[in-house]
Each structure stands twice: as structure tokens, then as C-alpha cells.
Amino acid sequence: MFFFVLLEWFISYKQNKELYKKAETIGSVLVGIGNVAIAFALKFSLLFIVIWVYNLLPWRMHFSWWTLLPCYIIFDFCSYWAHRISHQQRIWWATHVVHHTGEHYNLSVSFRLSWLQHFKLVFFLPVALLGFHPIIFFVANQIAVLFQFWVHTEYIGRLHPAIEYIFATPSNHRVHHGSQEKYINKNYAATFIFWDRLFNTYQKEEEQVL
């Protein structure tokens, strides 16, 4: 992730696009490093809790690679609501607002996450309680984190309509960070944009996002 941030910065510098501002980028990276340290400690502890819950459940699923797909879809559904509620309720907005404080839209924005955001783990308890194997649960979590990195860029335009219809692409996520009235509180999806289409929070990228 740090490599691609550096690559995007280098390309934008050579093209004089000014997508990166030094102080803002340093701030994003430092916030990201702190967040990684906290996340590591929490997830290490959470792993034992998830294993404990898993062993208590009479409907627990045995480890099987194919359960990753339903686990990921359900995990993403929870991500949609965790993100939406984080915009609509002030107490949860306090755990998310730092992500929207960057003035430039680039890959380093994905590092700009509140250290308090981990309280939102409560939204993902239903996934653990469904009995998915702990390894499947954590693999789904990590894939989701990595997926949300690449959408924070202006270098990727609109993709094929079929891809734009299913996934939260850079185009779809730029809308979410837009300041125009029609873009505010739109496109909450982390991976699958069809959640926004289903719950009437979808907005296509039309005019340039500001």
C-alpha cells in the first residue's frame, strides 16, 4: 500500500497534477501508522474472542474455502450499514470524520482513519455469530481492508458498466467524498455498490467531484 502511494505521488509530481500536499500526506501516513498499531493489537485480541464464540456456537461451520464468499458478502453488508450509520449519527460520525478531512483525493487518504473507528467492530458481531470459521472471518476482513485502498484515486476513471454496477470502484467512491450537494451521503458501499442501489443511496459520478 505504501509502495502504491509512493508511485502515485511520483506520477502526479511528474505530471504536475498536485494531487499530494506534503503536510497533508505526512499527516495521513502518521495517522495510518498509528491506526495499524492499534488495529494489530485489537485484532490479535479479537481473534481469541472470535475463536471462543465460534467454539460455543452449535451451528458453527467447519473450515472450507467456499464459505469465504457468503462470509464476505455478509461482511460487506455489515460494512455498508456501519459506514452509513457513521455518517448519519453524530456519535459514530466522530469515529469516521477524520477520513473526510483530506483536501486532496489520493491513495494516502485510505490511511486517514480514526483511531476510534475500531468501536465499529460491534457492527460485525452478526458475522461472527453466524458461525463462520475464525480464519474465514479474518481473511474476509483483510480482503475488505485491501479492497478499500485502491478506490481512493483520481487516476482510474469509470470502468466497464458491468463493473461499475456491481463494485464500489474509484468512480463510485469519489462521489462519496464529493462536496457537491447531490454527492453528499451517497455511495457508502465498501466492495459491492449494489447495496447503495438497493437502499437508494447510489449516485453516479457525473460532474467532476470537488
Describe it for me?
With 210 residues, the chain is an all-alpha fold. It has one domain. It is 54% helix and 0% strand. It has nine helices and no strands. α3 packs across α6. The longest helix is centred in the first third of the chain and has 35 residues. The mean pLDDT is 91.
- Percent of residues in helices comes to 40-55%
The number of helical segments is 9
Radius of gyration: 18 Å
Number of domains: 1
Oligomer: single chain
> Structural class of the helix and strand makeup?
mainly alpha
Termini separation comes to 25 Å
Beta-sheet strand percentage?
under 5%
Round the mean pLDDT to the nearest integer and report it: 91
The coarse overall form would be globular
The biggest beta sheet reads:
none
> What is the element string, with H for helices and E for strands?
HHHHHHHHH
- DSSP, total strands: 0
Which spans have pLDDT < 50 for at least 5 consecutive residues?
A: none
Give a summary of the structure in a few sentences.
With 210 residues, the protein is mostly helical. The chain has helices at 2-14, 22-56, 68-88, 90-93, 125-129, 134-150, 161-166, 170-176, 194-198.
Key traits:
210 residues; mainly alpha; 9 helices
Per-chain topology:
Blueprint: H1 2-14, H2 22-56, H3 68-88, H4 90-93, H5 125-129, H6 134-150, H7 161-166, H8 170-176, H9 194-198
Helix pairs in contact: 3-6
